[in-house]
Structure prediction request, 226 residues.
Amino acid sequence: DVKVTQSSRYLVKRTGEKVFLECVQDMDHENMFWYRQDPGLGLRLIYFSYDVKMKEKGDIPEGYSVSREKKERFSLILESASTNQTSMYLCASSLAVQGATDTQYFGPGTRLTVL
Amino acid sequence: DQQVKQNSPSLSVQEGRISILNCDYTNSMFDYFLWYKKYPAEGPTFLISISSIKDKNEDGRFTVFLNKSAKHLSLHIVPSQPGDSAVYFCAATSGTYKYIFGTGTRLKVLA
Prediction:
């Protein structure tokens, strides 16, 4: 079974703080993703990484950065948290299969509240 | 611009009956579609998928139907069980890593 874990289930931070969200997968997947989920908006892609040190912006990268120093670990960084970044953050991973569509496997999510 | 739409935010069904969840898309380049189920405080879990070369895919109680001409897909759950109560997301992709998700439909199965 694919296992994707996230460092915290619930997090409360203050406006202006630097926030790190960590994600680890144990299936040697090449691809890793960060999404945020908001009511009425579904899941929106923040950043994607297809290899160590490689990243691409998703649909809503503003205010976020990412780091992938090891294949199994993908971090999302909020440089200066703001109240509009209060959300559920979901990490996912997938095996990059040439010529086929991969299934993404999700972690349990981190509910971040910025006060 | 919502390329994948789930127009029903919620649906209630009696236990044992059929649940039908709908999803519409606008991008004709999408060629692979997926359904995910999400319980509160958990991440989405993959449920079933369908390629655009098919019009139906079954897996136990779950069947996904694809109507390419109408740009519409639906998920049928028969028979519905209380444990199926969750939020269901459809997603579409055009053969890349990028999924476009719908906004979700909350299904409640009444015992």
